[in-house]
Amino acid sequence: MTVTTRPALPAPGDRLGRYTVERVEALPEMQGTLVLLRHELGARHAHVAREDDNLAFGVTFPTVPKDSTGVAHILEHVVLMGSQQYPVADPFFAMLPRSLNTFMNAMTASDWTTYPFSTRNEQDYFNLLGVYLDATFFPLMRYESFRQDGHRFEFETPDDPTSTLKLQGVVYNEMKGAMASPGAVMYRSLGAALYPDLTYANNSGGAPEHIPGLTYEDLRAFHAAHYHPSNAFFYTYGTLDLTRVLDEIEAHVMSKFSPQTLDVSIPDQPNFSQPRRMEVGYPGTDVERGGQVLVAWKLGHTTDPDHNLRWSVLSDVLLGNPAAPLTRPLIESGLGSALADLTGYRDSFREGAFAAGLKGLSAGQADEVEALVLGTLRQIADEGIDPTLIESSLHQFEISQREVSNSGFPYALQVMFRLLGPWLYGGDPVTGLRLEAELERLRADLAAGRVFEPMIERELLDNPHRVTLVLRPDPELMARTEQSERELVERLSANFTEEDHARIVAESLRLKELQEQPSDPSVLPTLTLNDVPATVLRVPYDTETVRRALVGRVPQPTGGLVYLDVQVRLPEVPEDLLGTLPLYAYAVTRSGAAGQDYLALARRIEAVTGGVSASVGVGGQPGDLDALRLSLTFGGKALSRNAAALVDVLRDLIAAPEFTRERLDQLLKQRLAGLKASVVNAGSAYAERLAGAQVSPAARIEEEFSGLTALTALTRIVEGGEAEVDALLSRFARIRDLILQGEPLLCLTATPEDAALDLAPITATFGEGEAVGRPQPGTLAGGPQARLTDSPVAFNAVAWQTVPYTHPDSPALLVLSRLLRSEYLLPELREKGGAYGGSAAFDARAGVFTMSSYRDPHVARTYEVFRDVPTFLAGDLGARELTEAILGASKTLDPLTSPDTAGRLRFFGDQAGYTPEVQEAYKARLLAVTLDDLRRVTAEWLTPERAGYALVAGKDPNAETEALGLHFEVQSV
Predict the structure, then answer these.
(1) What would the pLDDT profile of 42-53 be if each residue is shown by its tens digit?
(2) How far apart are CA 926 and CA 887, in angstroms?
(3) Has this prediction a pTM greater than 0.85?
(4) Are 923 and 893 spatial neighbours (Cβ–Cβ below 8 Å)?
(5) Interatomic CA distance for residues 768 and 762, integer angstroms
(6) Could you tell me which of 884, 776, 887, 890 has the C-alpha nearest to residue 844?
């Protein structure tokens, strides 16, 4: 047996090459150690040494744009489009299929840009490290890359100077779509309102009307100034040999630079002498309920750990649950339907911000909302905060400090973002990871007297640096914006000569020529199929049958937390209850139970759990797409000392939920506001569901659960008033009865000491019950579907029902989806078409294959691209493309897990028939897929007559698509 010896960590003062170790701090909460170093060039480096097989890296640059041309955002795109050592067209996207990464991305915030990745394969780690370092510090920054992803003039017919002249560009189109979202408009407006003299007043992503003002020379100068080791913050994580990583960075980057001074400091925003008001519009048509009002304050420095912690706690106390003392009066006022976007404390600015408000408003309610927020805060400050609410909030922070989870986002990168906050602004990065000292001081101060009430008085009520931000829908804004864009083009091109027109044509043809040139990614590092593990994770667990329930107990090193999931497989569900299930799941954890109203239950949940949830799902069997079943899953987590209390909470939610008309009306309006707001940001997901519903019974159910069909049904209920709510309450009672007749599966994940937890309070609630139901819904009729919303760009999708998981063609379809995404759709839709994204996906368990585009300026062209897949596959494809597609597909079969999720996935997967043996057989077939297999399954399953089509856009698409033989049924969202 070989034992790997980890290198000893350095000590403060040690020299590692040209690095000096400045600090070494134990991180007992996460069983790790933080090492802080500084390079002679000024670069800072944070290394978190921790026993975790997921390794991470990030390099972050403070970027402080002085305008809204989007220079930082466009630069983020362009640096990833070829570098000195890797001069291929798009090494970032080329590496996605050559890697087994668990995360790869780049992000532009208001005042920094970061490039993070993570992977469980050490060779992959150093492959990606070399690519990321070369991309960020030595990009080619081709003029053509700037034109493709930034902005450019282009004739509608690129080689015809008599056709209409337009502005084009990936970021340009992305930001046109982004700024149609009320949440994005609110965020940009908040920065401009609270910090009008600082970089936050600018749109770092780029305002579409200002993006054309960015020159290629500006972009290069911004890179030279900001992307330098003297302005870099490096981060590494895991079981890595730190010296090896530092040596790589030294050889690749540090050895090639000289010291440089750049002032990226952000000063304090001068305080306002009196409160202000700002009104902004967004392209929306819901003038009755589309408005928002947010009351916001500038607070102290986010680098002050005590201040940051106290405002984080206070924000949770005031707003963290439905019973919170600021949330409850806002919602129960009836003025709006939900809390406004950005409500709460934000430490993403150098000086923090706190805000509260409402959405779902009509015009003219700003004074009422402002008075309600201020009056409620005054009452809270005068009457005091219940100490039990504070203790519950501190309990939540204890859980967040102790939990180590990859659920939703790699923990390795969660750690990076926690320390980046204070670090980038000159504070102590340790305070982002360890809060014991601050928590002890807070508890001591709480024991001595009031803490939070004086904060409300001093930093909110007596603070004149306050802005009331009014966000209103403007039905004419999209048309005015389109007209402004035409006028901008006319103004910028007013003095163009025939030579200028010829230059635009020549540059367009040059860009097209470069896009058509085959890229040779052979210079990029890669893994091979031998790097793909042949096995899947096997997590030991014990099972027992108790009455009607099957109980799985999974011992895991959860750090003293207990996770409990109760999946109830439902008996036959009547058709009229199908669309009600997700509303039930949404409402049941936000209402009352077992004699407690929703306020009392919310306080109880906050006090003894780390949160509870309920969700509805549709599943099948590996060999039969028609053998569907429906389930409701209740879940939660708690500290070990509160494990029995968690069991009781879940029992009450399952067996004794209590709903009232008044509370349900509030919840329905909140859910409707959230769904409406999500359409512009998640348009491609909605289009995919709508397309899938036309071909797949399982996808039809998903569409009724969470698609635009669900949105339409919810709108009808909300607009129907009391009669509709009463009818819904009646259906809820029937669902509760169905749940208690269901077949329960319980999965307990905990340390061995806690795994014997008594679950009888839950298992005893289920009686004899009925057989698990087998829903048999039809597919959505009506042909191609278009849904119109307030978006200047489109989201296009096409879907096919194919084969079940155990069918021999399923692995080939999964590989095909990865090949089309990287080799075909991204180049065609993003690089050539200007869309922000193009994707193909295969849900192997549902058997649904989809292709889609995101924030796309085209409709007809995109559907032509979808139809031309067979032509692409008949072209020059070889071993490289196939291998990379298989590598990419294999990642979906090995999801990143952690102690809280590994056992849950294994237990429920086994009960559904997706055992390790079934999954490993699938993986073996996947590794043997050939190019001929890809062409064959395309011809067999992805034919035009079997397809479902859907799109979400701002205008009727039929004038464009009739020539393709596609006629869409058009409805407004």
Answers:
(1) 999 999 999 999
(2) 10
(3) yes
(4) yes
(5) 14
(6) 890
